[in-house]
Amino acid sequence: xxxxxxxxxxxxxxxxxxxxxxxxxxxxxxxxxxxxxxxxxxxxxxxxxxxxxxxxxxxxxxxxxxxxxxxxxxxxxxxxxxxxxxxxxxxxxxxxxxxxxxxxxxxxxxxxxxxxxxxxxxxxxxxxxxxxxxxxxxxxxxxxxxxxxxxxxxxxxxxxxxxxxxxxxxxxxxxxxxxxxxxxxxxxxxxxxxxxxxxxxxxxxxxxxxxxxxxxxxxxxxxxxxxxxxxxxxxxxxxxxxxxxxxxxxxxxxxxxxxxxxxxxxxxxxxxxxxxxxxxxxxxxxxxxxxxxxxxxxxxxxxxxxxxxxxxxxxxxxxxxxxxxxxxxxxxxxxxxxxxxxxxxxxxxxxxxxxxxxxxxxxxxxxxxxxxxxxxxxxxxxxxxxxxxxxxxxxxxxxxxxxxxxxxxxxxxxxxxxxxxxxxxxxxxxxxxxxxxxxxxxxxxxxxxxxxxxxxxxxxxxxxxxxxxxxxxxxxxxxxxxxxxxxxxxxxxxxxxxxxxxxxxxxxxxxxxx
Length: 514
Ligand SMILES: Cc1cc2nc3c(=O)[nH]c(=O)nc-3n(C[C@H](O)[C@H](O)[C@H](O)COP(=O)(O)OP(=O)(O)OC[C@H]3O[C@@H](n4cnc5c(N)ncnc54)[C@H](O)[C@@H]3O)c2cc1C
Description:
InterPro entries: FAD-bd_PCMH, FAD-bd_PCMH-like_sf, FAD-bd_PCMH_sub2, FAD-linked_Oxidoreductase, Oxid_FAD_bind_N
Shape: globular
Structural class: alpha+beta
Domain FAD-binding PCMH-type: 81-253
Mean pLDDT: 92
Number of helices: 16
Protein name: FAD-binding PCMH-type domain-containing protein
Low-confidence stretches: 13-31
Bound molecules: flavin-adenine dinucleotide
Strand content: 15-25%
Family: Belongs to the oxygen-dependent FAD-linked oxidoreductase family.
Keywords: FAD, Flavoprotein, Oxidoreductase
């Protein structure tokens, strides 16, 4: 039986269970009878005109005399994704998303879905002029049910907005570490919260989704209703529909203690040793989290604790022993998730960015080998003064974090995490807007191949590739394991029978690429 509280929530936010959109798919402007144009550009133009006719001002196009087209264009975090789309449509309801999908179906136009555009892979939440974007930022409703502790969040919300709002109610939710990133892309890609060891992944916090399917129907899913869709969405991304509302479990206000300090990069052997030692300690202290972010000119170590103890937590002792500290950039602070996100977040200048991630078991010698590879490749890049920064981050995940999704009574997620102590190491290359893509991408490709080989040779490479940190060429879905790939394929075929999200979606970690 579905919990009556969740039923109540579903009822309050949409039409109950079957929740077939109450609005006619083609209202207010019929697109029946349209003949499908031949080229992608013509199809995008046809979709743009129909969207404009249906929704007027909420469709941003290049001929708008205000600055809105420029703002829409330049929203993505990486300037590699500042691509001019044929149109940016900003729906205010699931019914409007449904109408947009109908127009896309009728015109057979390519499209992308965008929450905040923080994914740096071009084409994931951006398109060129041969496609349109469904930009969800106006879907930013929030409501809270004190009976269940479940928050209903529109897909346009950011973590910063959600943390602040929930903390006003004395509640917390396990979301991203940065204020600006979107709830939507984070959760649908699994999502690694600041305190992943406490309650598992971001997607493990979901109790239900409201989804607009490719045929225009709006449906809900949970552990009891459409459990296959519910589980597949927990990591399976944009393969099945457009999620318009996330129902997330909240908890009593989480107090946090954190500090971020900079260390000398030439002390990397000791820093890596300390990172490995702290990770081992974390296996028995789920309240602890840290990151070790290695740059050419400094190493930033963030020590995060899900409580405000008087005494320094034992788990961070290895970091306290380091003698290479240059400066504390965030002195020890007692706060909350929202103050933590404000403290560690920063708004870097606009630039090009490309990322990839590798998951490995925890091993000092492997980390040292990776560091050496990173150093060698960094030496081939333009200097920091040119705006080039190739950095990597050690992100520790404990065995219990991997277990959390399976054990929380919601049927698990689609990520296929192995229950071992692991590091989701993320490599990020940031470079100037006029930087040479071919040169920078070639360096990243070499780095990827060599790091992967180093882990493989030692038998320490894990199949899992965290979707939120992955390069578009990484085999993300296969990394979830055979059973989950089967589930994702089945669910995509069942809920998107016409294959709209496979055929016309611009990019993503999609079944079509398996
Ligand atoms: C500064 C920074 C900090 C970050 N910190 C973390 C972190 O702590 N933990 C972590 O796991 N990740 C982190 N990330 C990665 C981030 O979670 C991913 O880039 C994520 O994809 C961003 O989601 P978004 O909604 O903001 O982005 P978008 O680029 O808008 O969307 C990402 C993908 O999700 C799809 N999508 C978005 N909304 C929907 C929807 N409603 N329905 C269907 N598909 C949808 C898009 O089509 C796209 O493929 C960080 C990224 C940055 C830039």
